[in-house]
Specification:
With 348 residues, this protein is α/β, with parallel strands linked by helices. It has two domains: 242 residues, Dihydropteroate synthase-like (TIM Barrel, Alpha-Beta Barrel), CATH 3.20.20.20; 90 residues, Sulfite Reductase Hemoprotein, domain 1 (2-Layer Sandwich). The protein has twelve helices and 15 strands. It has an eight-stranded parallel β-sheet. The longest helix has 18 residues. The protein binds iron/sulfur cluster. Iron/sulfur cluster (SF4) binds next to helix 11. Iron/sulfur cluster binds next to helix 11.
């Protein structure tokens, strides 16, 4: 059961109130470099990023942002720290949402300026609090980090509400998975603004994917979260892939066929792991949400993968293609992937 929240729009993408949980990521090119940022935006779009955030530190990057806005239909989010005037320029340049931390944008007058500009263009603002930006007052209190983060987010919301702005999306992230979970649980009970969830600075591709999957998986399974970003020290294309896998694993959204692959054991008579990898790569180009199995032996394979729609069970130099656990054709090892894909395409 999803937590109830207000519905907001970032460009055409709905967030909150039961809208599909959207996938966002962030460019990591120099945002003053038009060509490389545009190239990265198109790569991110091609793998399924639904919202793309760009950090804008200065006027020059806002000029580039304005040009980028004319080149993509994917909503672009401007990420601004410290300088309210840059946030206002980014809004005027066409940002579909801005992310600020009211704690570092320069007090109530500055927040008020940013909110007025956002209200004029009818775009939401994300209040993005994280463990590194908690005020000294809160940090000095002898309370758990999750409580500090929650209070910090509530203080920021209060600042925005006091200037009359309510189109707010909220995030409050920490590196600690438990800290993050407790923070979002508390926020989901006390506010009805949409929640952007994520584990901040979660690590490299492997460790960050695991931390994010654990943290976001728990939150999503409790119905918490309206949009998400997986933050990885890696090419942001991976952030989109991992986010999709998290949502698909929980059966919240379906993007591609799912691969069931046996872990292999001494019964396996082919080099199965590269075959499974190759099939997984090919499946990313297919949108039908089938379950596809690649199993290492024909004795146990079809039975173990009986929940699969389509699969292959390898034997010595040969493999048996099966549909819903029933064998349909024997193929040579060299043709495993092609024959499996042909069967999938026929089913599409
Ligand atoms: S499907 Fe066969 S090879 Fe794979 S783990 Fe099971 S028994 Fe072993």
């Amino acid at each position: 059961m999803r937590s109830e929240s207000k519905r907001l729009y970032v460009g055409e993408v709905a967030i909150g109130d039961g809208a599909p949980i959207s996938i966002q990521t962030m460019t990591n090119t120099d945002s003053k470099d038009y060509e490389s940022t545009l190239k990265q935006i198109s790569e991110l779009e091609s793998v399924g990023a639904e919202l793309i955030r760009i950090s804008l530190p200065d006027e020059e990057s806002v000029k580039v942002f304005k040009k980028l806005k004319t080149k993509t239909s994917t909503p672009l989010i401007a990420d601004i720290h410290f300088r309210a005037e840059i946030a206002v320029l980014a809004i005027e340049a066409g940002a579909d949402k801005i992310r600020i931390n009211p704690g570092n944008i320069g007090g109530k007058d500055q927040v008020s300026k940013v909110a007025a500009a956002a209200a004029k263009r009818n775009i939401p603002i994300r209040i993005g609090v994280n463990a590194g930006s908690i005020s000294d007052d809160l940090r000095d209190q002898d309370i758990p980090l999750s409580k500090q983060l929650t209070l910090s987010a509530l203080e920021c919301i209060d600042v925005m509400e006091k200037v009359g702005f309510n189109d707010i999306i909220v995030s409050a992230k920490a590196f600690g998975v438990q800290d993050t979970i407790e923070t979002y649980r508390a926020l989901s009970k006390s506010i009805d603004y949409p929640l952007h969830i994520g584990i901040t600075e979660s690590g490299t591709l492997e460790s960050g994917s695991v931390r994010s999957s654990v943290g976001l998986g728990i939150l999503l399974s409790e119905g918490i979260g309206d949009t998400l970003r997986v933050s990885l020290s890696a090419d942001p294309v991976h952030e989109v892939h991992v986010a999709k896998q998290i949502l698909q694993s929980l059966e919240i959204r379906k993007f591609h066929p799912e691969l069931i692959a046996c872990p292999t054991c001494s019964r396996c008579e082919v080099d199965l792991i590269p075959i499974a990898r190759q099939v997984e790569k090919e499946l990313k180009n297919i949108s039908d949400p089938l379950k596809v199995a690649v199993m290492g032996c024909s004795v146990n394979g079809p039975g173990e993968a009986r929940l699969a729609d389509i699969g292959i069970a390898a034997g010595r130099g040969k493999g048996v293609l099966f549909i819903k656990g029933k064998p349909v054709k024997t193929v040579d090892e060299a043709d495993f992937v092609d024959e499996l894909l042909k069967l999938i395409e026929r089913d599409e």
